[in-house]
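Example for tutorial group B:
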């Protein structure tokens, strides 16, 4: 009945795509909010927990080429139904795990589901954007950010209200399944078949797009993982309040993405990438060079605004290029971007060990500047 009602909504394909991005962010944040309970339940050390997180990352990297294979054979609709359902099923199982081996296996499967969903929903988004013939990708990614904020809020609210982690994740999964049921009528059933392999190394413009995404995912991961340490150790903010940097960054990125489609339509993708990169660079420089914690928070907000629309624009470009088939290109770009998320904080940590955290963060500034130069070689849509 819910699906029948949903089919009567205008632009159901856009609504379904937004809901799927929201679900992906919601599920990711719900898992992250459950980590302390899972760590305690399985009695893991910090090092062992790090290995568990690696299992999640490896699973996601497996899921990305799986998305390309399945989307080419079955279309977005069947793949999204299966992958999002798997996320909803596996999320409560994570808090039920009582041994490292059980948790590792569940995390690999959860990662595969997250990776498959991520690639497939971007393929769906590109198809919807092409059909609409106007920029929509930033708004879709904005709903991922919004879902992340809401997922963290809802799960934290449930847990602080005394609800058990199993019940809290069960409620979260129920919300995800309800949104999936409503979204199903809007998913694309088109199968884009092609001869040749279902995964290939990126080449030509796709490789450049992937490198740009790698850098901006790396920059995002750097702020999320290192902003608290920088505020605490270099700007004397108490550890309990050091999360303010992430809050400022996340709010700014969410707002930037939700408003991004209108901005891209008005200014053009090229101008948004250039201005966004320069704003992100200025945010890093402000946070690193000025001594007050308030200016650091301003810098993180500028980084969020600057980075907000660049990755969505690059995904749109990947879907419109002619060098590689669309699903293959999305898989390749997503994989490079996710490698940036996984490796970025570690690279910064290694640099911090050698030369100090500020010097390592200045290195990220140089990478963003390099990505800006590389982006000039990508064909982007002009202003409307």
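The residue assignment follows.
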């Amino acid at each position: 009945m819910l699906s029948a009602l949903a089919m009567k909504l205008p632009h159901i394909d856009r609504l379904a795509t937004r809901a799927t991005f929201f679900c992906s962010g919601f599920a990711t944040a719900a898992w992250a909010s459950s980590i302390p309970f899972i760590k305690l339940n399985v009695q893991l050390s910090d090092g062992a927990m790090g290995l568990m997180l690696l299992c999640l990352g490896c699973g996601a990297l497996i899921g990305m080429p799986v998305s390309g294979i399945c989307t080419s054979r079955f279309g977005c609709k069947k793949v999204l139904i299966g992958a999002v359902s798997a996320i909803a099923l596996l999320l409560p199982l994570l808090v039920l795990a009582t041994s490292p081996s059980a948790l590792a296996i569940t995390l690999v499967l959860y990662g595969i589901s997250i990776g498959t969903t991520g690639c497939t929903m971007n393929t769906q988004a590109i198809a919807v954007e092409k059909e609409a013939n106007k920029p929509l990708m930033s708004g879709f990614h904005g709903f991922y950010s919004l879902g992340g904020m809401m997922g963290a809020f809802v799960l934290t609210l449930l847990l602080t209200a005394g609800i058990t982690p199993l019940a809290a994740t069960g409620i979260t999964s129920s919300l995800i399944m309800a949104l999936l049921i409503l979204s199903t009528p809007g998913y694309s059933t088109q199968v884009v078949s092609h001869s040749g392999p279902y995964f290939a190394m990126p080449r030509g413009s796709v490789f450049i797009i992937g490198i740009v995404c790698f850098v901006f995912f790396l920059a995002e991961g750097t702020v999320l993982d290192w902003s608290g340490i920088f505020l605490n150790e270099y700007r004397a903010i108490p550890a309990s309040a050091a999360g303010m940097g992430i809050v400022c960054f996340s709010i700014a990125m969410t707002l930037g993405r939700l408003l991004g489609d209108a901005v891209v339509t008005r200014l053009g993708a090229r101008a948004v990438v250039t201005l966004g990169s320069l704003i992100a660079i200025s945010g890093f420089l402000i946070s690193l060079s000025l001594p007050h914690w308030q200016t650091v928070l301003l810098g993180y907000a500028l980084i969020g605004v600057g980075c907000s629309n660049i990755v969505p624009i690059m995904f749109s470009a990947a879907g419109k290029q002619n060098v590689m088939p669309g699903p293959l290109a999305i898989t390749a770009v997503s994989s490079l971007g996710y490698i940036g998320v996984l490796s970025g904080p570690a690279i910064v940590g290694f640099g911090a060990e050698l030369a100090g955290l500020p010097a390592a963060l200045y290195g990220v500034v140089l990478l963003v500047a390099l990505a800006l130069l590389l982006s000039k070689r990508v064909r982007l849509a002009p202003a409307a």
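Residues 72 and 194 are 7 Å apart (CA to CA). Compare this with the pattern of hydrophobic and polar residues in the output above.
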